[in-house]
Write a structure and sequence with these properties.
The chain is α+β, with helices and mostly antiparallel strands. It folds into two domains: about 50 residues, no CATH class; about 80 residues, Immunoglobulins (Immunoglobulin-like). It is about 15% helix and about 25% strand. The chain is built from two helices and seven strands. The strands form two sheets. A four-stranded antiparallel sheet has the order 4-3-6-7, with no helix packed on it. Strands 1-2-5 form a three-stranded antiparallel sheet, with no helix packed on it. Strand 1 and strand 2 form a beta hairpin. About 20% of the residues have low confidence.
Length: about 140
């Protein structure tokens, strides 16, 4: 009998894991497609079989201009994006995110950059479901 109780427990756990949304899902988006079920929205299985494109478009027109003691990053707004993430790297390989919360503006001023040091700035768009786009990368050296 212990085998059957253990199997039943695992089956219930697996069904709960597949059906109920994951803890990371904060928003619900009604795609209204066939087979759409409210309990599946936000779960990994829903995202796996969803026909919508989860990633927003890559940001465009990222420009960096010299400011006093730093640089100003600006970009073209994407109407589908709910925010943006800014990353920085000094080697072009390992990027570190600068903002804690998504940026909703179309520009950002960075201070305390070191003169002559090469920087690589990357910008990503964040969609309604929290997906992040590919990075748009722009090198910059403060002179």
């Amino acid at each position: 009998m212990p085998v059957k109780k253990g199997f039943f427990f695992l089956a219930v756990l697996l069904v709960g894991w597949l059906v109920f949304p994951s803890a990371e899902a904060e928003t619900e988006v009604d795609l209204g497609g066939p087979g759409d079920h409210p309990k599946l929205r936000g779960s990994w299985i829903y995202r796996l079989f969803s026909t919508s494109k989860p990633n927003p478009e890559k940001p465009t027109q990222l420009t960096i201009t010299k400011e006093r003691f730093g640089a100003e990053l600006s970009w073209a707004a994407d109407l589908k994006a709910v925010g943006y993430n800014i990353y920085v790297s000094t080697d072009g390989q390992k990027y570190r995110r600068l903002n804690r919360q998504p940026i909703t503006e179309k520009k950002l001023i960075l201070r305390s950059l070191v003169k002559g040091k090469p920087y690589f700035f990357a910008l990503t768009s964040i969609g309604e479901e929290g997906y992040e786009s590919e990075k748009t990368i722009q090198p910059f050296t403060l002179k």
